[in-house]
Each structure stands twice: as structure tokens, then as C-alpha cells.
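Q: How would the C-alpha cells look for this protein?
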Amino acid sequence: MKAIFVPSVMEARKIFPVGNFIEWKYGIFKGEFKGIPVFTTGVSKTPTAFSLPVIINEFKISEAILTGVCGAYRSSKLSVGDLITINKDHFVDEGLYHKGEFQSIVQMGFGFSDTSYSEFEIFKDLPVADSNTVSFLDGEGKISEIFQKSTGADVENMEGAAFGYACKMLGIKCFQVRAVSNYCGARDEQGWDFKKAILNLKRFFDFNAL
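A: Here is the predicted structure in C-alpha cell form.
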């Protein structure tokens, strides 16, 4: 079975307004779109790492699509509202920060994976980007700049790498589609347009076969 996943119920209800989302259990919300179940993962890696295996095992999911908003690094040349399909999503802030540089736990020899990122299938006809999954949101710009330089990623989010890792461990085919809602860095320069990002995601799912 194919399923769609969204971090928060707020995002889910705006992207899929006909989804009729209700709480299933463990704080996870479930709805439906075009006959496909839609679930919330919870925001950030921790609830995602819990909820995804529970849902996959309960509903026998064989293909998973993660969607939601993300922040773009200005060096990516992406604009607020842009839709992207994620290829690699890095566990960027799990490791050691020392002397202005970041070293991942994989590079340190303590990794739980062969790589410091999760890899996703890509949607045709969407620009391909790499992402950093963060637990720490930098509102000043210094740390996000270090993260970007350490991986060369285009955007950052809070769930993707954990989602991809769980799918890999369970043998599930996975995709990730995001819309840029803001820029990373200094809070007064982030240029948020959440509404535009959500509308573009809604249009994508409305007009594309899944």
C-alpha cells in the first residue's frame, strides 16, 4: 500500500483539505486523499522515528511519500514557493562541532548507517535538491551556514533523514517532496510565505498522479 506522510496536522489539513483528518492513536492523525491514506509523523526526527515504523507495520505500507515545507539556503538560488524533490537528506547536526567545522558521527566512526544521509527516490519533472535534517534551528545564520558548507545541501527540514532511514531499514520505497516556505538564517531575513508554499504543494498533489 502507498501512503503519504506530513509532519504536522496543520500542514496536512491545508495541503489535503478534503482529507478528514482525525487522531488515530499515539497522537498520530490519519486522513485520506485520492484513496491514499495520509498520516502525520510529528514534527522533528524523534516523533518521526517512532511513528513511521508503527504506521508501516500496522497498515502494511510498501511505498511512502513525505511532504511538507522546508527552508532554503540562499546559496541554493531557490525561491520561496519552489517545489523540489529531495534526493539526499543529511543527518547534519548529529556529530561534533569543533573549531568552526562540523564532523558527522559517521565520519567519527559511531554511525548507525553506512552514510551520513538518507537517500530518496525522485519525482520526475521536479527540480532535484539535497537537504539537511536539523534538530537545531539557527535563527542567526552562523550555524546554518556551517551546516550548508558541510554537506552542500540546498534546503533544510526537521524530519527527512529520519524518515528515509526508517524506510531503508524496513525495505520501503520512499520519496520526499517539499516546498520552500522561507530562507534559513537570520530570523528577520527569512522571508516567510507559508501560504504560498502550502498552495503549491496542494496543486502538486491535486494535479499529479501518485
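The chain is about 30% helix and 35% strand.

The mean pLDDT is 94.

Upvote if useful.
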